[in-house]
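Anyone have tokens for Phosphatase 2C family protein? Sequence:
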Amino acid sequence: MQKTVELEYFGLSDIGMVRTRNEDFWQVNLDSRVVAIADGMGGRLGGEVASYEAVVRLIEMINAYHENLEDLEDEKYKEALQMILSKVNGLIYEHSLVEAHLRGMGTTLSFMHFLQNKAWLFHIGDSRIYRLRNGVLSCLTEDHSLENRLKNRYKLPKQSDKMYSYRHILTNVLGSRPYIVPDIREITYEKEDLYVLCSDGLTNMVSDADIREILTQPSTLEESSNILISLANSRGGSDNVTVVLVRVQ
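Reply: yep, here.
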């Protein structure tokens, strides 16, 4: 028997303490059970445009295909999702070519699609997805950074700081080239799982340990989101900060 998933969520985006524009964008659609977050970059106004287009176009296409996606086997679902993502990537890339002030724009994109018995994760860039389950916080994504590429190549421990200076150089973003190589995976969810989608404006300022500490307090999703963003800003707020919390009911 299939189970029906119900989601509770709260999201918040803040410009931070340094930037003059907010280039993050997020959206949740409960009808298709999609949660998405993007952190744009490039061009004079490109970051704002890229992140907005990535999230809005993705959710539009998921909504259009939603009923069909529900019934697909895993490999067919991945193929369909890859097709949707390629279309979104192409739209952003082509847009950047026709308007000079958008040249070079791109965006991270991380999203979750909750189906009846599982959830699918898509990830490109360094906007992370975490899961808090039974008090344990797990990061479900790996940043597409030059730091991680070099660590993997030279088999360095994940905790090593030897490649720290390459942390903010992204090796994979949406919309900056005609093709993409995203991470796509499926997970199983449980009742009371709490999922965190966030931009690097949070994770550059707030450690995983601090995130866990805040999320395990008896607070509402709104209160927890505000605390996380306030903490990032109190530590410098060098970037836009976006947090989306989603709890499985």
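The chain is about 35% helix and 25% strand.
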